[in-house]
Amino acid sequence: MAIDLYSKLGNLIKFLPTGTVFVFHFLNPVFSDYGNCNKPLNKYLTATLIALCGFTCCFNCFTDSYKGRDGKTHYGVATVKGLWPSPDESHSVDSSSYKLRFSDFVHAFFSSVVFAVLVLVEPNTVECFYPSLATSSKALLCLIFLPPIALVVSLAFACFPMKRHGIGYPSLEQSSKKTDPLLPF
């Protein structure tokens, strides 16, 4: 029981939009002019960055991969009928096992919530869109809203385990070959 809980908590990091958050934190100071947003272009660029990164958080929850006969990892998008683009007949992969599930929507929603929270507490974004928000108000929001959101998201990810190995994550065959997830080989 405890080992199962630790494995679910240990795998939590693969559900969070870490790559998207990195891109956001890398580009946001440039697009928002470090929170100044004196020009309307800065607000438009920052809003576009937020929208694209939010879409990426959501979209990545619907991607999956499989290992073909050629030994390469192939990626696709989960649909109601299965994986798209459909694997060739030469790959001998049952694409119907990759159909959309309720847990995909749960993960997409909560990954977007995590990203939205990170955007709302990011100083450059707050200064760009809400310059009148005082520092004490930001601290109060972090103390009141972050713990319950973190608890709900963690429980949702633990209750609905992710079975997809989408873009940026190793396929099932690759991850099962490793004995220790901390070792690179």
Quick check: average pLDDT? 77
Radius of gyration: 19 Å
Can you count the beta strands? 3
Which strand-content bin applies to the residues?
A: 5-15%
Taken in chain order, the helices and strands follow as HHHEEEHHHH
Q: Which bin fits the share of residues in helices? A: 40-55%
Span between N and C termini? Answer: 29 Å
Find the structural class using helix and strand composition.
mainly alpha
Which regions are unreliable across 5 or more consecutive residues at pLDDT < 50? none
What shape does the CA trace take? elongated
Largest β sheet strand count, sense and barrel closure: 3 strands, antiparallel
Number of helices: 7
Strand order in the sheet with the most strands: 1-2-3
Characterise the protein shown here.
The chain is mainly α. The chain is 54% helix and 7% strand. The protein has seven helices and three strands; from the N terminus they run H-H-H-E-E-E-H-H-H-H. The longest helix has 25 residues, at 135-159. It starts with a helix and ends in an 8-residue tail after the last helix. The relative contact order is 0.16. The model has no long low-confidence stretch (mean pLDDT 77).
